[in-house]
Amino acid sequence: MEGWHDFFVAQAGAAVAFAGLVLVSISINLERIVKEPGLVGRSAEPLVILFSLFVASSLLLVPDQSTRAYGIELLALAIAFSIVITFVLRIQRAVILGAGVDERAPRSSFPARAALCGITAVLLLASGATTALGHERGVFLMLPAVITGFLLAFLDAWVLLIEIDR
User: Fold this and answer.
1) How far is it, in rounded angstroms, from Cα 127 to Cα 142?
2) Quick one: CA dihedral 63, 9, 120, 157, positive or negative?
3) Which of 79, 92, 71 is nearest to 152 (CA)?
């Protein structure tokens, strides 16, 4: 993974710092988050994403591994991420449907958030699978995975910190 060290150091640090921001926003508005249907799951969403991006970046910083080993580790993480984020999204969808909210309504961000989660998962899976096959260029797919993951985490953090008081 020559040439990627600085990128993954930066991403690991950014993911942890960003997770701290999300945790602060949750703690500031904890009472409201617990009372509002769906916001607990919405709070979990960015934390799952950011933790997964942190772990992925950390795994790719471990020295002296083969390309295949990096890929297998990344693929295992991507599978775990896909399972957990699907669970989080299914709970959010059930809350939305139980509250009688049309998830296709303009004010509902659920479809867009679910799509971004799916894109991030597919990119992580593709990066892990390609790298596990011995193609070092598979890590290039981490870049769009990080971008979509950070975008989603930013949107969720904005809602949890700012929009929640509207």
Assistant:
1) 6
2) positive
3) 92
CB 59 within 8 A of CB 126: no
Backbone angles phi, psi at 162, to 5 degrees: -110, -55
**Could you list the residue range(s) of the whole structural domain that residue 92 is in?**
5-165
Q: What is the C-alpha to C-alpha distance for residues 63 and 2, in angstroms, rounded to an integer?
A: 10
Number of domains making up the chain: 1
Q: Is the pTM value of this prediction over 0.70? A: yes
**Residue 38 pLDDT greater than 80, yes or no:** no
pLDDT (tens digit, 9 = 90+) per residue, 101-159? 655 544 578 889 999 999 999 999 999 999 999 999 999 999 999 999 999 999 999 88
Q: Give the three-state DSSP class for 60.
A: coil
Contact between residue 132 and residue 74 where contact means Cβ atoms under 8 Å apart: yes
